[in-house]
Amino acid sequence: MAWNVFKFCTALRALGSIMIVLVLGIIGVTYYVIVVANYGPALFHGGLDSFVAFFVLVLFHSLLVMLLWSYFTTVLTDPGGVPPNWKPSIDEESGDADPLVGLGYEGTDLGLNQPATFGGRCILKMDHHCVWVVNCVGALNYKYFLLFLFYTFLLTTLVTLSLLRLFIAFFTDGVINGTSGTLVATFVTFVLNLSFALSIMGFLVMHISLVLGNTTTIEAFEKKTNPKWRYDLGRRKNFEQVFGVDKRCWFIPAYSEEDWERMPVLRGFDYPTRPDLDELQQL
Asked: Which stretches are transmembrane (predicted)?
């Protein structure tokens, strides 16, 4: 029996509520350990301890807000789908013009406001289906997904460094204040955040390389067989294909009105290519 990727993605979506609760649960435990059990009380110690606690708490809450904003924007944003009746203007196999090109581009819903069913539906510039965000990652939410990875890496790194002193004290004669439950929660939080920081670092590096090459995870396999990638516009333009031209919006999960107008990739049907490689392909 052939393996059906669409049914697989649909099955993964059934885990959606469980994964969201798991993510929020990990964040909740981390919040308790950092804010309630350790650095919150340290604000009242005075001196250097209060200054360090204030700095950690401000940075922690700032990164947490950006992480949650990016996460739920990724979860709730439809990655973009091809309209049911739409076909390309040129048949890539025969080279003939397709008379149905008008169906689905002008005045047709691109699927941006449709429920994200994904099973059997083509996703624009699909990268992969992510269980953690309960969504496919595609043209319209790839930036948000990358920001979620970025802020998760920064936050987990901050938590790991902030708890390192206490973790070391577990295996030394250092004095650790708190109940046994708090100590266990601190130990578990350190291990979890260290694990996430290391794993996400590798994942983030991989996706940065994909962005700079203007490819997706799926397209990377195609690029291996075709080193002359016609969509590689140079690192700066490749980056702008995902994050936009407006620098003010690079680090927030949103696009400016100007970017929505100037970025054809967000419409999903027109992807800029390199003229020199287009000419070679036509020869």
From this structure: 12-39, 51-72, 144-171, 183-205
